[in-house]
Amino acid sequence: MRNLALRCRGFLWRNSLKHPNKWNKCFYCFDVHEFLSPRARKLLNVYSMREVVFQDKVPTLRHLKRLRLDADVQLLALPRYRTRKFKVHEEDPRRPGRRITVEREESVLQEYLALVYKNEERVLSDVVYLFKEARDFPPNIQSIILAQLNFKGVLDACVLSEDELEQLQSTKLEADRLAFMKRRKTTRMFLSIFEQDVLVCRIKQKEVVPLLNALVDFDPVVNSSLVENYKHRFRIHVPLGSKTIQQGGKFCTHVVGSSCEEIRKEWVLTLQILQSSKGRLNIRQSMLYLNQQKKISIWNQ
Fold first, then answer.
1. Which residue in 210, 288, 244, 241 sits closest to 40, CA to CA?
2. Domain ranges of the chain
3. Looking at domain 2-42+211-300, which of 2.40.128.20, 2.30.29.30, 3.40.50.2000, 2.40.240.10 is its CATH number?
4. What global pTM score does this model have?
5. Which domain of life, per UniProt (predicted)?
C-alpha cells in the first residue's frame, strides 16, 4: 500500500473553484508521511509551479553528492556552476610561429542545492545510483541507462556552500549531521528527473484535499469544446462539515482533468483504494486488498 501511495503523483489539470472556465496545471501527490502515521490521514497535496531555480543535464553534474544523514533521511546535493572566463596564449593557426590571446570559458562549482528526503522517497536513491553507473559507460550505453531515470517529488531544499557540504561530509556522527541540517532554513521545492533533464522549481501549495470521507467518481459531463489536456475528467467530492455526503452534508467538488482515458482511470482507481485502505498492510494483505478493490471499483464500469 505504501508503494501505491508513492506512485500516486503526477501532473493533472485542476478546474478553478472560483472561475469555472479557468484550468491550471498542478502537481498532485499523496502525503506518504501522513498515510504511514498512526493517524493514517489520507491527504492529497496540490501544488502549482513557480519559477525554475535549477535546470541542467544529468551528465554535466560532475560534483553531484548523496549523503546519509541518519537511518531514515538522505541528502541529495545538486551542484550549481558559474561560468568563468579566462585568457590563454595559443599559436595562431593562420600564422605558424606567432602566438595570439584567446578567451575561453569553463564551468566552476559555485554552490550546492541540497534536497532532503526520507526513506519513503528511496526510489530517488535508485535514480542516483543509475546516474552514477551511467557516467562509467560510453555515450551510446549511457543514453540507454539515462532513459530509465524518472522521478517527480516535493522535497525540502536549501543552499549549501562547498565548504558547508565538506563540513557535513566530515561530520562522523549521523545525529550531528541531521542536527546540522535541521538548523538550516529549508523551502519545499519540486524536483523532476526525467531521462537526462534535472529540474527544480519553487512551488506554491494550492490546497490539501482530505480523502478519508470523500467520494471519487468520473465526471459525466461531455463537452467536445474542452482542450485535450483536460478533456478526460474526474471529480473529488469533499465534505465541508461533520456530516458525510451520504448523510446529506455540504460538500465542495474538485474537478480534475487529464489528457487520456487511461490516466483518468488509473487515478480514480488509485485514489479509491488509498482512501479506503488502512495504510499499514503486509504484502499479502495488500495484494488481496488491491484485487478486491479492483473488482468493485468504477474502473470496471
1. 210
2. 2-42+211-300, 52-204
3. 2.30.29.30
4. 0.80
5. Eukaryota
Model pLDDT, residue 93 = 81
Residue 253 pairs with which residues in a beta bridge? Answer: 237
At 162-212, the pLDDT tens digits run 999 999 999 989 899 999 999 999 999 999 988 888 999 999 988 899 888
